[in-house]
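Notes from hallway chat w/ T.B., transcribed later so I don't forget. T.B. wanted the structure written out for a chain they're using in a teaching module, and asked if we could keep both sequence and structure tokens in one place. Agreed to drop them here.
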Amino acid sequence: MQRISCTLAIAAAIAPAILHAQDFKKNVIYQIVTDRFYDGDTTNDNPAESPGLFDSTHTQWQAYWGGDFAGIQQQLSYIKGMGATAIWVSPVVNNENLNCASSGISAPYHGYWARDFMNIEEHFGDNPNSFPAFDSLVSALHANNMKIIVDEANNHSNPDNCGEMGSLYNNGTFMAAANNDPHGYFHHNPDISNYNDRYQLQYYTLEDLTDLNQENPTIDAYLKSAAAQLQTHSVDAFRLDAVKDVTWGWEYSFANSVFNNAPSFLFGEWDQGNTSDPLYPDSYKFANLSGISLLDFPLNTAIRDVFASNNAFPEIDSTINTENSNFTYPNDLVTFFDSQDESRFLTLNDDQNRLQEAMAFLLTGRGIPIIFYGDEQYLFNNTNSGNDPYNRVWMSSFNTGTTAYKIVSKLAALRQTNDAIGYGTWKQRWINSDVYIYERQFFNDVVLVAINKNGATPYAISGLFTALPPGTWSDYLGGLQNGNSLTVTSGSNGNNPANNYTIAPASVSVWQSQMNATMPEAGSIGPHVGQPGMTVTIAGDGFGSATGSVLFGSATAAIQSWSNASVTFTVPNVTNGSYNVQLKSSNGAAANTIQFTVLTAKLIPVTFTVNNANPTNTGDYIFVTGNTVELGNWGTAFQTAIGPMLDPSYPNWFLNVSLPAGQTVQFKFIDIQSSGNVVWENGANHQYTVPTSGTGYVTVSWQYQISAD
């Protein structure tokens, strides 16, 4: 088995990180398909390592077009001027070198066909696959108080049917290929055919991409080392590709590894249509327990339906209310309406007002917003209905004078100054098919937004209430999107009447009030799950300049840094479980509590198998539950027990679970029936001692009642 030599060295060499990477809620992310943005270094256009994959004419849509890290760095003032505080770039690691087409060019310009996770793609950096160009970009970002998010694709290497046939390397040393895999580094299953089948999603092949076996200890160490290496190069956050298709239990341990290395933020791609998706309950269970937030696909669908396809606003309102009730940390959801995987908004509806209204909604809404590169320049291509690759247009304009650019700039600034947007609650204040008025509030910070998406019809607004203080409030956008002022009179209990007014067609008005906190106000904790000794940040307002305390019950955390808006501390040595963490200022004033899950120890992926478990009814599933928080603390509900387990070899069931290293755990298997009734296996608790490193396996048989005769 090949040695992964860099894990310990990397962990020891993690560079000092920007601690506010643990709180992303006030950020605006600018997503860049690196190859399509700007050619800052022509020497890497057609590198010797992978020649013939570049098209200077930008007409072969599956070829490299020249965008690179140097190009992003050269356009940094444009990005910063728009108000973006973080950029999300394509996967940066070395991609396959061979043409994956029998005619023309099919190249991994998008970055998702990795061959070596341990070094850099030569088309984005340099031919020796080294880090200087990437490091230069990261340094420039940090010098501008901006963050770098790297796309990490832990599901696969490259296609199994062309090019390099899935070949995987470790810093230049061959490990395996789809057709040469003696150590079981890959799964060898068919393509996914049923995207609602939990087993197929995690263990079958995603669109011919050679599927990595994360339960193999070498692959487990390899992927975690690759992320750790990027953290030594000061990466602030990771967008995790296809988290729905990677072994779910293993991903908990991956997140734990990243959080242990350095302060970071993680969000993943769990592709689903809406909150009626069959696996929607799995998605919020995954986010709530793993520490990995998600891209908000249900809201993406609703925004595109309402603003582009002219559905009624209650679709958005219903989606947000449902998600807010299901996700423990809804403000950590990452929101978007355009991406590299769907036709652009303007292909759906070539109406710039609608695009700008959607942008205003995204930037003032719940969650961390992404602006997809080029939307602020109204760029799109309608070939093949604008689908991949025609949504990945060349960034041909950097005009800072477009209305969309100005809207993003203004509202990104508001997100930084008014905590209601990043940390606040959500309340619908007035709604019909065309008009949506909603309010964000964080203690005394308030933002009220009114949108009329109808391009021709004004509406008379009456009966509007708001938490804005009495007075006349001007449109924060300064009329950029036909907004108007609002007069508010005195009311009670945060419901102050607004004077009747007429909302103009195709308009967005933003009214806001911000007050400095007089008491501690906690708006964020990140990460929200981790073991004693992990570094965690609470963010908000009014903490004071003098060091106070952070309490887990009666246990006091060691403070690492303290400012009025951000406190970093070490999780104290307390029993595993859920805690309502409370910050107190130096004078003893207490903030609102904020939830954190304390793990027992660092997480190790362990595969459980239970043989001969025979639920008799369709819709019954086997779960595992046990005596630690990692095993659900004997929970017996879908959202608390661990599972559902997978049964490709029924009646034998298995599941990969992350457990505390070196700990002896007690567990049992249960059948949660479709009715909600719970059937326990008989006999004594099973017992297992978790390894201190690597991966683990445990196999038992379901304990049936022994007949008296």
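Follow-up for T.B.: The domain at 7-422 is CATH 3.20.20.80 (TIM Barrel). Might be a good example for the class.
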